[in-house]
Amino acid sequence: MNILVCDDDKEILDAIGIYLKNEGYKVIKASNGIEALEVIEENEIHLIIMDIMMPKMDGLRATMKIREDKNIPVIMLSAKVEDTDKIMGLNMGADDYITKPFNPLELIARVKSQLRRYTTLGSMEAKSNVYKTGGLEINDETKITTVDGEEIQLTPVQYKILKLLTSNAGRVYPIDEIYERVWKEIPVNPENTVAVHIRKIREKIEINPKEPKYLKVVWGIGYKVEKL
């Protein structure tokens, strides 16, 4: 399997590369987020180890970009130990988190755990471009959304929001992150804008929009599509 390791510290990059190669993995290296995105476009990558603090593009922003259309497991790597950094990394789409200095055996164990989940729990289904939870289904090839087999007409923005949440069903997305991913702009007081689109989506996909089955608010944080 191919593992992308992204870190601007060459010594750490080389050390992780040695650990992984000894386990039989193929290692591809990058020194910043921009290089990582280029590697992902040109290679089939099965797991990413991503440092947070890097020049040009940091690991958080790179992970957010990756999560726009890929479900590759991401392990965040950072010297920081504050809970806020860990939470931010996980909210951006990371699957796991490990702090420097790290035990090589622990890193390998986490890598193997994520790869098992990726291969056995069907994360590779993303390649089919079909996202489903309960009776809600989004086919990203045909851009058709259905609920219980009935096609639903969404605007482009509504589609992007629903696809983002459905493709990662169960994960809570902060309002700022939804806005930044869908509108591709730095969010400035995005609450009302996102709330209006969420309400309109509910009107189309929910039997009772006031008691939603799929698209739910998590008060004080953001929104999620329920994993059913």
Unreliable spans: 123-127
Number of strands: 12
> What is the N-to-C succession of helices and strands?
EHEHEHEHEHEEEEHEHHEE
How far is the N terminus from the C terminus? Answer: 31 Å
The helix content, as a percent range, equals 40-55%
Main sheet specs: 5 strands, parallel
Please report which band the strand proportion falls in: under 5%, 5-15%, 15-25%, 25-35%, 35-45% or over 45%: 15-25%
Helix/strand class: alpha/beta
Strand order of the largest sheet: 2-1-3-4-5
Characterise the protein shown here.
By secondary structure, this protein is of the alpha/beta class. It has helices at 10-22, 33-42, 59-66, 83-91, 104-120, 156-166, 175-183, 191-205; strands spanning 2-6, 26-30, 47-51, 74-78, 96-99, 130-133, 136-139, 144-147, 150-152, 173-174, 215-218, 222-225. Helices cover 40% and strands 21% of the residues. The strands form three sheets. The protein has a five-stranded parallel β-sheet, with helices on both faces. A four-stranded antiparallel β-sheet has the order 6-7-8-9, with helices on one face. Strands 10-12-11 form a three-stranded antiparallel β-sheet. The longest helix is centred in the middle third of the chain and has 17 residues, at 104-120. The chain is elongated and about 55 Å long. Residues 123-127 have low confidence and may be disordered.
